[in-house]
Amino acid sequence: MQVALSKGTESSDWFLYIIETQSGRLYTGITTDIQRRFSQHQQGKGAKFFRTDPPSQIRFQQRFGDRSEASKEEARIKKLTRIKKLQLIASEGDQTIQHG
Question: Does any domain span residue 50?
Answer without folding.
Answer: yes
